[in-house]
Design goal:
This protein is α+β, with helices and mostly antiparallel strands. The protein has two domains: about 5-155, hpI Integrase, Chain A, CATH 1.10.443; about 205-320, no CATH class. The chain has twelve helices and nine strands. The protein is elongated. The model is unreliable at about 200-210 and about 290-295 (pLDDT under 50).
Length: about 325
């Protein structure tokens, strides 16, 4: 199950705000442990057992000086190195500082220990306790959807989310398999199916799921005001406008290469030629793409063609002085 965009935004906001409130050395250990655990799994999609098995020396750098995390999987007794972002690096750094004295005292390299208040002792964080804490986190920070309903989340939901997003953003199925540590391609194929099923539902409802306007001058914010130069600059795309930064500050868009399939995407007739060129390039290169036989590539190409054809049809009607329905 994919996580709702509003829920993901709520999670990301809570993690940022939570981090800003504590010092890893002085803070309650359990606070740092839970924050770090959710941060790591949210941004990497590693299994809960893999996260709980992380050692203090799990962070490395590649030849380009980018962060790598060493994952040792208890499930299949394998290890792998995956690239991670700064959020993960900071989370591990905080956790290392918070547990430094404890690890020295217990003579262990394991990072995920917590304080048992009942027994007054430190012990390795178990899967049961980690799942129970996740439920408490959801209630504490009111993690919910746009309707105000509390989210139902498991750590595995983050894994499904990351796997699907990696495929969406152009990573090959084999690369996703290696990144997530799947033993076979079977699990990876499920992510492609989830993505395809979701897109199919959107297209059945709306066709092109974004918004077509007469002109960028017609685009307004949620209060009906025209965009100032700063908002226009933040929202501008090569082939349209993204509505997301118009309404709120965007730290990191999780759909950087999937604007055509995003309901926040807005386009106008001034971008018509760009869309036409995009469609022509896809048609010219289609055989080469399909020859690579990447999972989901055929579906993605045909759905992109369909979206572009729909956009071009609507924009052409507007440019000719008609309406979105083709009436003049």
């Amino acid at each position: 199950m994919l996580i709702d965009d509003d829920v993901m935004d709520s999670i990301d906001t809570s993690l940022r705000n939570w981090k800003s409130t504590f010092n890893p050395v002085l803070e309650d250990l359990n606070e740092v442990v839970l924050w770090a655990l959710i941060t790591v799994i949210r941004h990497t999609g590693v299994r809960l057992t893999e996260a709980l098995n992380l050692n203090s020396d799990c962070m490395n750098r590649d030849l380009m000086n980018k962060h790598l995390m060493e994952i040792v999987s208890p499930k299949n007794e394998t290890e792998r190195f995956i690239p991670v972002n700064r959020d993960v690096s900071v989370a591990i750094d905080y956790l290392c500082k918070a547990t430094e004295e404890l690890r020295s005292e217990l003579k262990t390299d394991k990072l995920f220990y917590y304080f048992q208040k009942i027994n007054k002792k430190h012990t390795p964080l178990t899967q049961y306790e980690a799942r129970r804490w996740l439920g408490k986190y959801i209630k504490r920070f009111n993690i919910g959807d746009s309707n105000g309903n509390l989210a139902f989340l498991t750590y595995n939901n983050f894994r499904h989310q990351i796997g699907t997003e990696l495929l969406n953003n152009g990573m090959s199925p084999f690369e996703v398999k290696e990144y997530l540590g799947h033993e076979s391609m079977h699990s990876t194929r499920l992510y492609a199916k989830v993505r395809n099923d979701r897109l199919t539902k959107e297209y059945k409802k709306l066709g092109f799921v974004g918004v077509v306007e007469n002109s960028t001058e017609d685009i307004v914010d949620e209060d009906g005001n025209k965009l100032d130069s700063e908002k226009r600059l933040m929202a501008q795309l090569p082939d349209g406008v993204c509505a997301k930064p118009i309404g709120k500050k965007v730290i990191d868009c999780r759909k950087p290469n999937a604007c055509l399939f995003c309901p926040k995407f807005i386009t106008t007739p001034e971008f018509l030629d760009i869309h036409k060129n995009h469609l022509e390039r896809i048609k010219e290169d289609k055989e080469r793409y399909l020859a690579e036989d990447l999972m989901g590539s055929e579906y993605h190409l045909f759905e992109t063609e369909k979206a572009l054809a729909d956009i071009i049809s609507r924009l052409s009607a507007l440019q000719e002085g008609g309406t979105l329905n083709g009436d003049k």
